[in-house]
Each structure stands twice: as structure tokens, then as C-alpha cells.
From TrEMBL:
Database matches in PANTHER family: DOMAIN PROTEIN, PUTATIVE (AFU_ORTHOLOGUE AFUA_6G04830)-RELATED
Domain Sacsin/Nov: 30-152
Protein name: Sacsin/Nov domain-containing protein
InterPro entries: DUF3684, HATPase_C_sf, SACS/Nov_dom
Cited Pfam families: DUF3684 (PF12449), SACS (PF25794)
Natural source organism: Ramalina farinacea
Record-annotated membrane-spanning stretches: none
NCBIfam families recorded: P_loop_sacsin
Amino acid sequence: MGSTIDFDALRAQTLGAGNDEAVTVNTRALIDKVLARYSGEWTTLRELLQNAADASSKHVKIRFETLPSSRVPVPQIADDSTRLRHVLLHHTMKSMTVENDGDIFGPKDWARLKKIAEGNPDETKIGAFGVGFYSVFSDCEEPFVSSGKDALAFYWRGDALYTKSRRLPNDQISKTTFVLPNRNPDAPVPSLLSLCRFLASSLTFVGLERIELWLDDWKLMTLNKKNAPDLDVRIPKEVNRKTKEGLMHVDNLTKEAAQLDAEWVKAVEWTPRASQASSDTAASSAKSAPSTQSLRSFFTRLAPGTSSTAMTEKLVREEREKQDRISEDLMGLAKATLFVHVNRATIKTSVSHSFSAELERATKKPPPRNTTVSLLSASYDENVATSASSSSPTSGSSKIFDSFVPTNGKGRIFIGFTTNQTTGLNVHISTPSVIPTVERESIDLNNRFVRTWNVELLRIGGIIARIAWSNEMSDIQDKLSRKVEQDGRRAITKDDVDGVLPEALYLHTAYNWSETTPAAEVGSLMEEAFWTCNQKVAIATVSTRGVMPASKVRLEPEDLSFVNGIPFMPKGLANAGLVQKLITYGIITETTVADIKSELESKAISGAQLRQFLGWLLHKIRMNEVDVATAHSLLDVTVANDDEGGQGKIIVLAETKAFLNPSRISADLPIPPYVIPFKFTKDIPKAYLELLFEDLQIVPWLRWIVENVGGRGALTAEQDITINPAFASSVLPVLSKQWEGLSTTSKATIIDLLSSRTTMPTKMGMRKPADAYFPSVKLFDDLPTVTVHAVKDKILTALGVRKTIEIGVVFDRLLDPSKTQSSKSQIPNSSAKWSHVDLIKYLASVRQDIPKSDIERLRSTKICPAETESLSASKERYLVSELYRPDQAIRMLKLPTLHWPGVFQPESSEGRFLTSLGLMPYPSYQDLISIMSKSFIANDLVLRDHALRYFIDHHQTKGYASFDHSTVPLPYLPIQGSDKRVAMPKDVFVNERAAIFGFDILRRDLQVHALKFGVKQDPPVATCAHRLMAKPPQSQREAREKFGYMAGRASELSSNDEQALQDAKIVPITVKAKASDHPNDEKARERINYIQPSACYLGSGDSLYADIFDYVDFGKEANIFLLRVGSKHEPSIGELARRLVNEPSNLFSVLGDARYLELLRKIGDQWSPLKKDKSLVRDMRSSKCLLAYKEIASKKSPNEEMDDEEEESSVKSWDLARAQDIVIIDDVNIYRVFKGSLLVTPTEETLETLYFTLGSAEIGSLLEERHALGNPELDQSPALQLQQHLHERMRLYLHDFKSDSIKHDHNWIRKNMTVQGVRSISVTYSLKGHNLRHKASKRAVLLHEKPVLCITNKFDMLEVSQALAPIVLKRVKPGDIVMLETMLESTLNKLSRRGYVLGIDRYVQN
């Protein structure tokens, strides 16, 4: 195995002794690579202008100096325009000078200027990376800088950049000036228009106020910026000023107007190349055209149907004409003014110390505590002012400021100066504290901490945009409010909104978020903050009702003339980008039901509007555009004024539930107020009306008519159905027409409404239906017969109009009672013309026409006699329902039967009529039970037996089988073995074995009919169990019978019953007393004890543990029950352990030491599951249940010197003790010293493990040693040899041990343990917790605290092994010491012969 290199050590050695060499850099290559990232135009000017702004400069002057052409001479004409044209066409660039009036350079500024990547540490300044100034090397080879009284020149020496500095002479003071000689002498004059546009945008957000651009001695352009005083902007309360991560929050916001004035010579707009082309011939123009074509002209040339040559010539001609007009006067002046406003927010930051440190590491400056974020836009008013102030429509602000006013979401992010990053709005956003990429063209979103900072600043931009939008909308609302107030009106009109619509369209376009470039995430972050910073997501917008939250504005729907107060989105604004986004987000929606509901709540609608509203609503429901619940919510708030016909009636649709169907109820009849008037629904299809309203039914209509009689409600006297025959005659035909189609319930309701009132027109006036007769009833002339026509017989019958004479009249007029009859008698006496049989026959013949009231009167009148014992009629009369049919079997039960001469036919018309009046065909179950119970009490056993036989014979035919026998309240069933008692069905059983528990058994001859009486086979098993627990068996025989019966029903026991039986002491155990208690009577010495089933075991008592556990045997059947409730054949190991804990002395006296040890071994073998029982483990630790022995030495006492060669004889004394009082022999030598005083475990690994777990300590852990060492030997060579020998053999010794049993491995021994020779060693041993001490001389001992192995000259390997084994092994066994001694004394060959081949081979290899 090859050696490994320690690289940490090697690095430390190299740093300590290596050669120092500096890392060099190729400065030119470094600058070139940095500048390669500066791809934007005017990079050098941008950086120098930024430096001027950081130096608090107000005025910057830029001058380009040119070199004359060597080929084209300067014209002699003194005209400035001609000379300037010549310079632009033929001169080349010499140098650029940039001068600012800001703070002059200090020592630190000069020092940073000479260092790359050491930015300005001022967190309020934009510069961060320290490479911006070096952008000058993109066009300049050796720049020169002058500021104050100092100057600095850069020059190259090879690829290394050097500087030279000096003081200005004669105490001159210079403004900060950068002179940049051009690297390329052939470079033409740059595009002036592009440069001026760049300078115009550069003046926007920085502190500069004036920029001048010179070319040689010509001032080409002057830019001036003027700011109006700022105004505080109110930040709405619902705006969350804090960003998502909580690093920043908006402290305040101001708004200021700014004016940018530009004045330039027209040469700025002149394109020399286009002018040059104008002087060429047509042919050369055609040849040069392709090289100057734009992509637009290229694709136009490819367009079908267009001549590419003609298009090219047209474009060239237009550009030539334009440039010719400019070239006529290059020195002419042009002016333009741009008005903008700026929303500037003061931002406070709050970052952690760690975050600040990480950001400073990335940017070389700490994050600012306060910063600003600004939004620049041209509002609609300012845009108009800008257009009006341009001095030249063709070359005004469109030339200089055209790239400054953004469109199509191309606003830019400004970090001092513009970047390539767009904002997604027609608004510029300035964030000077945003950290850009090195080239300052984009925002850095890569570095973790820089990204977090930049993201939070972008979110601030979104929040400010939201506040600015709210401010713009407030301004528009103020304009509208002023307009309304001036005109003396209350509400905003559509014309008012049309007046501000152009401005609203401009703002909705400007603040429409679009995708940003090059990083789309920038726009997403700002837009997210724009929408989420406000608790109300819906922003304000313009509607036909003025400025309102967008969530309340609706898209203009179809014509809804019944509502006219809903704010709609103006059509001229609907296609604006922001509006479309609000529609997409679901903020501006179609007109909703809630909108209509709100409008309906505000005022009542007219009758015409009600028609349109109902038609619209029902159509929406039909098309599934509105659900029924929603439609009802609209009706609940709608109130209509029925102004048609001059009635002025108020209709509350919340109370309107139904519509009138003229095919059911005539429209001429009165209707309830909850029904919509027919004139509003007559043009709406019935299928539509049913979607929302109920079809007015006959029953509720009639109830309203009936309940409002007597002048109640809106009905007049002419519409009173109880007093006006004509009105009743118009209502009853309506009911008759619909009668067949009505439900039973509806018919019953109509009957209930009309039958108790005078609603029936008769020839005797208005009568109740029950007091009126059919026209066909002509028995008497003075009867009130019905006079209404077109009414069916069925409804008249149902209402109770009589087809027969009432029973009272029959009694009065046909039976001709005697005048002497008592007034209390209900019917004529026996002297009447008709008997009860004649009366029944008459009534049976007209049964179908007898009204219910007469039937009820017949049922409650005592009209029939009963049979006597001689079968004659009784004098007493009975209700029909009190009598039974004439039948011999019923007569034997002594029940009252109807007296009926001749043969009674139950199926005849008279029999069926009597049955309908309540004549009983046979006795009920309760009647029979009562007869049987009372007859037993009266000792009328014959009657009881008749009743029993009647019940058995007619059990099925009379329906007795369906009766619930458990509800019988009277005892009536005979009991087996007793004529003196009867029982209820629920208290008697069939199984005679149940009698052992004291239950009654049904008489044996009736047991075959037990099911008919509802008698169960066995009592409830739970009851049996409770009785068993309440009264356990008194003898072995009784136990065998009770347990045997319960065995047959064991499957019925519930878990609760089984648990109760397991815990109950129900098993009888015979216990014999001492012979001395009853010396002459053996039976008297026996007594019964009861134990739980779980405490006894089944068997004959031949078990190993029969002497300590209770064994019983009640027979095979009874034993099955005991097994079910907890008994077992043998005790479990857990039960043995528990008995061992509870009765250790008893077990020891019964089992003896050998069997007791066997029990402990069994517990030790099963200890893994047993130790889960925490209470058992706790009890075993505290109980004297462990068997240990003490060896009593017979030869030497513990205080005498120990001789290893001499064996001692001893006697083992066994005793029970707690685990903590027993020790484990892990050091035989120490044990030999103290063995006569210690209780020790048997030397078996299973028992030692068990005792150790329970708290027994090893002797080695109790041992305390005190060493007395002699002086060190002068010759330590034997000790060193032994140390080397131990280092070698210890690895071999530990080879076969498991890693978890090793305390220290051989590497630890080699590094830490030493061997020392001494002249003498004396050790005093003592045991903790035992008052024992022994002193002995030793030849080897280990000092653990060092560790040092001390040996004498005549050291012994056994003692060496005894000293070393405890330090390398966690637990030492006697064999481990012998093995170590063998390893140390034997040679490798001898060890190999003894079987240590594999370990030796590896040892030799290593």
C-alpha cells in the first residue's frame, strides 16, 4: 500500500520555506478585455459625464478638435456654413476634451484613477467597479487629466501602463478636464444627431444642468435643464410601501415638472453622406443605393407588386431633398423644448449586517441607507405643451428628443445614464442605486446578494408607478368634479367624460406593461409589485361615471333600459393596452348580476321597465346565463310602480311568487297579491315563466279567497264566496273543471276550506256542503238542494253534499221512538218500529252514500245487543266495536258476541258494514294474554287452557306471529316443575341446562311451541356470565356443569364479557389446612378458595411448576371454557419472571438452587422480549430475586499475601440478593483477593449478562488502585524493548475482536502508551462500596492517567497482560488475558502453528 501525501502539511511547509514571486498582469490585455464588454455607443462620454455628476458638476463642456484633410484643401470662402460643411466632410478626429465645473480631484481621487477595479466607496455615487474611466482607452491611447492644481498623464511602456504627474505652473487652477487624443487619425467626425440625442437623454436624471457641444470653434448645441419646485404627493393608505423582502420602503414621494431646452445648429441634423450623394450622378447614385439601403427598403424591395428600383429611387430622392434643405444653411439655429414631470421617491433601506458585508464585497461600497427612485414621463398636458413649443415642426423635438419620449413600452432604466434595459412602460425609471453589470448596459441579476438588492429596487419602481397612476387618476377626477360643479350639476355625464378621454387614453397607453428587453424578468418584477403593492388589486380607471375602481367598471353590454346608473368603460378607451390587460385579468368584466341588483336596489322601475326586466331575466335563465337563485336575488330587491291605467299600484317583486295561467283560472277572477298581474306576463311564454315563478294553483288561490272573506284583505263583498251565490257559482265551476287533475292532498285541502263554510248555493240560500243535498234527493220537499250548474257530482260528494238523509233524521222520522223514552237514550228502545237488524240492513243498502259524520255517529252509538249464555239478546246495548262475531270458539273464551238471529254471514253486506263499524272478528293478542293471566290468578285453569289452545291453533291465521312478545307486561306461561308460578316470555327459556343458573324453564309440553310464545332457547350469555361471577361454583361438580354449559356458548361472549370473566375469581380451588387444625376430620381441613381463570393452569398437576402454580381439571368441556377466558396449559416466561419477583423465597425453597438457576437461565435466554416490560425490569432490579454465591475460603484470610501458585479450597454459599448487591467476576485475580467477602454471579455468560443489565457491577469497575513506585531503573532498554514488542503484537492481538468491543486500537497504543522500568511496584487495592482493602507487590502496573506501563526487571507477561487488557478492551474476560499473554510470550511461528495464520499474514504485510 503506497503512502499518501498530507497536502495541508505540504502547503504549510511551502509557505514557510518557499520562494516569493509576485503575480504579474498584462495591463493592456486586461483593459482590452474589460473594454470588450462595453459594447454601447458613447461609452466614454457616458462615463465622463457620470464622473462629472458624481463630482456635483452643473456645467459640462465637450469639445471635438479635428485635423484638416491632406487631400482636400480648406475652401477660401469665409462663410461659416461652407467651412463647417468642409470640416464635416473631410476632416478627421484629433481629440476630445471634456470639462466640468464639479469638485476638483483630491488625493484619493488621483489614487483611484491609477487603480483598476477600485471604485468610488461613496455609496451615494453611482460608480462601483472602478473600471469606468478606463473606457477612455477604447478611443484614446494616452489620456491626460487635469484638475485643480494637478495634472496626470498616462503612457504605455510595452504592455504596462504608467503615469506621470505634476503640479500646474504659476499656481494655476484648472477645472476637471479630460483630454483624449484620438487613437485613429483617420476617424471621421461622428454622427452629430446621434451624439446630441445621447446628450439630451444624459441630462435627464443626473444633477447636470447644462451641456455644451463644440466642434473646433463652432458651438453645435446647448442643452439646459430647469426644474420647478417639487410638490408632495399623497401616498394612498392602502398602498404597502414595503417591498416583498422587506429591505426597502417608500418614505415619501414628490412630483416636479422639468423643462429641457435645446438649441442647435442645423448641421446637427445634416447627414454628410446623403448630401454627398446628392452631388453625384444618377448612375453613381443608383450604384451606391444598395449600400445605404435600410432593412425597411430591403423588405420593401421584396414585397410583391412593387418595383424595388423605383422604391429605392424614391427613398433616395426623399432623403436627398430633405438633406438639401438643411445643407442650404448649416449654421441656422433650431430650438426645441420638452416638458416632463418626475415622480421622485425617497427610499429607506434596511439590510442586515451580513447582507451589507456581502454587498460591499461585490461592489466595494456599502449599500446606501437612503436612495431615490424616479419616474419620468410626459403627461398628456405636458405632451401638448411640448408639441406647441417646438420651433420647427420638421426638426424640433422629434430630432433631438425623439428617443427620449418612449413609446410601445420602450422606456429605459437609467443608472445615472440610460441603459439598454427597457421598463415595459412609456415611462423612464431612474434607479441610481441599482447595481449594473460591469459594462453598465444591463442590470446584474446573477450574483445572489446583488440580485436580491436589484430585485427589491425594481419592486420599488413598480410601487412608485402604482402611486403615480393613482395620482394621475385623481387629477382626472378633479377635472371632472370641477366641470360638474361649474355647470351646477350633481352627476358626471358622458360628455364630461368625452372631454378627458384623450388624456385618459394617453395614460392608459403609457402605463400599459409590456415585455421588457433584454431581461424580461425586470418588467415582470416591477409589474408584479405594481399590482400587488395595493390591498385593492383593481386600480382606478375612467368610466362613464367618472374615475372609479376598475373592479366597479363594466364593459358596455346590450341595451338594458331598465338600469341606467352602471359605470361602463367608454368605447374610445376599451382597446387601450392597460384596459385590455384589466379585462384579461378579470378585473373589468361584463355587466354582472350584482351590478344590475345594485341598480335595482337604488330606485323603483316603471311598468314598461318591469316588462323588459322580466323578459330579459327569464331569457337569461333560459339560456343558462343566470341561475334561479341569482334571479330570485334580483327579484328580492326590485320594486315596480304600476303606473299604467292611472292605478299607481306598487308591485314588490320580493313578495311575488306566482303567475296566472288563464287556462286554469280566469283572468277576470281576483288573484292574490303575490301573483304578477296578467298584463305583465301575457306576452311571455309559460315555459319561461315556470323557470322563475310558480304556476298559480287552485288550492292556494282558493285558500286566499276563503281566508279573506268578511271584508278581510283586498276582496269586496261581491267577491265573498260565503255570502254571494253568484261569485260562488263562478268559483265552483273552476274547481269542478280542475278536480280530476288534483292530488289527494289538494282535494283534502279544498274540502277542508269549503266544507266548514257556507259556500254551497242552494234553493234555501247559502249552506255548508254537509247541510246541502243533491238535486236528486227528493224524499222531503223542504231539503236545501244545490242550485249551482256545471259542477260535477264527484266534487259535490267530496265536499259532503248528501245523497242520503242524515242518521239523526232517520232516527227521528223513521224509527218513531216512544215519547216516554229517556232523553239520554241514543236510539229508540225495543218498542220501535225497526229492530237493530232492520237498521243495519237499511244502512248497509245505502252504505256508499252515508257521510263520514253519520258513520262516526253510528260507531259511537250503542245500537246492538250481545248474546247471553242462552244465546238470547241482552237488554243492554253495546257499541258495535265492543262486540265480537258470533262464533263458538270465541264464546268459550267468555267474550261478548253480537246477537244476530239466524246464521251470521261475515261476507254479506250487513257483515261487512258491521265490520266497518268496528265489529271484532277475533280476540287480539293482548286480549288472549289478559285472559290467560287473569284466569291463572282466578285459578280458572280450564279457561287458561282454552286460551292457550286458541292462541296455538290460530297463531298464523289471526296474525299473532307478528306480535313482539318481548313487550308482554303480564306473566302467563306455565313453568316446568311448578304449578304455582307463571312467567313472561322474556323470563322463561327452553334449554333445561340453563336451570343451573336459576333461570325458569318452559313447561315441557309447551316447549315445541316455544317460538310461537316468543320463548328463547337460552338466556343471554352476558346474564349467565354475570350470574356466574355473582355466584361462583360451590363444588367441583357444580363447576363442571356451569363451565360446561358456558363452554357451549363461549362463541357468544363479547370481548367485555370475556375480560370480566378473566378478572373474576370464579374457579374453585381446594385448599387443605394444617393437620393440627382438624386432626380427626380430613374433610374439615379442606376449604374452597376462588381464583381468576388467568391465574390457574389446566392439567393434572404433573408439571415442573405444579408446586408453585394452581392446576385444575374440570373435564374436557369445562376446560374449553376456561381456555376461552384466560386459562392456559403452562405459565409463560413472563409469568414465571413475575412470580420470581413476587415470591423469590418461596420459589427458592420449593425449587432449590439448581432448578432456581435453571429458571434464571430461561429468563436470561428470553430477556429481549421480557425487558420491554418496564415494570418487570424495575421490580427485578429492586427485588431480592437473583441467586448468587459467596466463596468461604478455608485456607487463607484476605489480609494475607496472595500466592498465585497456591490454589485455595472453598465452599459456595448460595443466597438471594438484589442485583446491586452482586458483583460480576471480570478480573479473577482481584476476585481471589476479596472472594470471601463478595456475593458473585454464577460464571455463565447468560446469567452475567442478565445480572449486568439489572444493575450488577463488574469487579473491575469497582476497583480502585493506589500505586507506590520505586525509583526508575538506570537501564531502560528492557522497557523500550517491551514497548516495541507491545506495539507490534497489539495489532495482532486485536485483529479478531469486533470494533464495538475495542476501547483503544493499536494506533492509539503506539501514539500514547510508553513503558518505563522501575525498581519496585506496590499496589493497594480497594473496592468502591465495600470496606475491603488489600496490598500486594506487583511486577507490572499501568498508570491510566498518562498512560505509562511500569515494570520491574523481573516483569511477568501475565501481569503485563492483566494491566493492558482493560485499556484496550471495553469488557475483559479471563480468557482475553490468557490470550494476550500467549501473544506476548510466543513467537510468530508458534502463533502460526496455533492457528493465527490470517492475522499474522496481514501483520507481516503491514
